[in-house]
Task: inverse folding
């Protein structure tokens, strides 16, 4: 990752991996919210998933902002409460030993806009209030991390962006050299770990050749490149000649011992 992103991510990881009892002794409260913002296609979702994978072994809840809204009064708030329910149950049963629950909310600006700016009967205002209560209210949880993703942070209600809510805010722009190397590594990880990557591809990845040749690519561009590489490789593998070689590997001729001339 680039320097600034790496520093902020390290801060979140350090606080979240600190035992709760130690955190209490030090008077520290781990961030409950992280806001990733920047142009489309620059890897916000990928980064959010990697942070979640690093921090928690619980299933990650991923939701798009518009999915929360509902035409029936009260249903949007009900959907929002349901996302936090597993964390609430575990916190009640296990206390400080509860594991971390990560919720990723994409297109945050579509729902949690500045209150009073949209005439929808107060539906969005009520949803904003519900999220504020869950993240920093009387019954707020310490075993939760909400990662919000947006292209337009200025549209989000200011109350959500203050400390205690989405207090850690990170700009995710077009990836630099190190970030491109990390993104390639993430997308190629399944191929490499399952033994489907050729030695040549592994050498290219480790040498940095691919990351150098993708200057100017966004995270989405790199993901598309990897998909294209994989499809072309599969297409070549599905050719009749390749399938025949795969099904019937060539047998190497057996070497017969040389006969020595009789004396």
Result:
């Amino acid at each position: 990752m680039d320097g600034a992103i790496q520093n902020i991510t390290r801060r979140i990881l350090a606080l979240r991996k600190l035992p709760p009892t130690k955190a209490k002794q030090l008077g520290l409260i781990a961030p409950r919210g992280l806001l990733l913002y920047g142009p489309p296609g620059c890897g916000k979702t990928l980064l959010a998933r990697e942070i979640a994978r690093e921090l928690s072994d619980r299933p990650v809840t991923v939701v798009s902002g518009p999915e929360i809204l509902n035409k029936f009064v009260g249903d949007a708030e009900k959907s929002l409460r349901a996302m936090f329910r597993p964390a609430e149950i575990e916190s009640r049963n296990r206390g400080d030993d509860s594991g971390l629950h990560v919720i990723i909310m994409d297109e945050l600006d579509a729902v949690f806009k500045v209150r009073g700016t949209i005439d929808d009967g107060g539906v969005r205002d009520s949803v904003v209030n519900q999220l504020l209560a869950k993240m920093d209210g009387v019954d707020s949880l310490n075993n939760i991390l909400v990662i919000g993703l947006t292209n337009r942070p200025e549209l989000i209600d200011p109350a959500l962006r203050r400390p205690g809510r989405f207090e850690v805010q990170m700009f995710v722009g077009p990836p630099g050299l190190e970030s491109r190397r990390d993104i390639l590594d993430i997308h190629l990880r399944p191929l490499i770990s399952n033994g489907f990557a050729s030695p040549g591809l592994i050498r290219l990845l480790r040498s940095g050749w691919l990351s150098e040749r993708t200057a100017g690519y966004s995270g989405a561009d790199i993901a598309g490149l990897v998909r294209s590489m994989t499809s072309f490789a599969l297409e070549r593998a599905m050719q009749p000649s390749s399938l025949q070689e795969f099904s019937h590997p060539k047998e190497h001729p057996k070497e017969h011992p040389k006969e020595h001339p009789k004396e």
Q: What stands out?
A: The first helix runs from residue 3 to 17. Residues 3-171 form a domain with the Rossmann fold fold (CATH 3.40.50.300). The first strand starts at residue 33 and ends at 37.
